[in-house]
Amino acid sequence: MEKLNKESEDIMIERFGTDSIIALATLEGNMPHVRSVNAHYENGAFYVITYAQSNKMKQIEKNPNVAISGDWFTAHGKGINLGYFGKEENVEIAEKLREAFSAWIGNGHNDFSDVNTCILCIKLTDGVLFSHGTRYDINFTE
After folding, report:
1. Engineering a disulfide at 40: which of 13, 15, 83, 100 sits with its beta carbon 3.0 to 4.6 angstroms away?
2. β-strands 20-28, 73-84: how paired?
3. Is the dihedral of CA 100, 101, 105, 107 positive or negative?
4. Residue 120: what pLDDT?
5. What is the pTM of this model?
6. Is residue 40 within 8 Å of residue 16, measured between CB atoms?
7. Alpha carbons 69 and 18: distance in angstroms, whole number
8. Residue 53 in 3-state DSSP?
């Protein structure tokens, strides 16, 4: 397994550096739960706007190990609740998410005045990416 290199990082940014739909799998006990989420990729992580009291966040709180799947890409990672979307520490990533999700972010689905509207960071650990007949086995950790 190779470290994330410029070539594979460029492919990740091209495919997932904007509003992307990925499958996110969490565990509750020994039962997997999978759902589709809107996500934005950058620097070895996917970012999702979600609700702190959702089943996925409750499951991640108990077990942060997650798996994802997207356009010719599968990976493992750790789910990290970055907290309220509007808190000062999240200003930079929140602005990037507002831009990435601009097509739908203002449709009323999210209540940004609710402190339970949070950002989920999926910090990738390892993954497999396919592009134009090439397989990239990627180690995202340092």
Report:
1. 100
2. unpaired
3. positive
4. 98
5. 0.95
6. yes
7. 16
8. coil
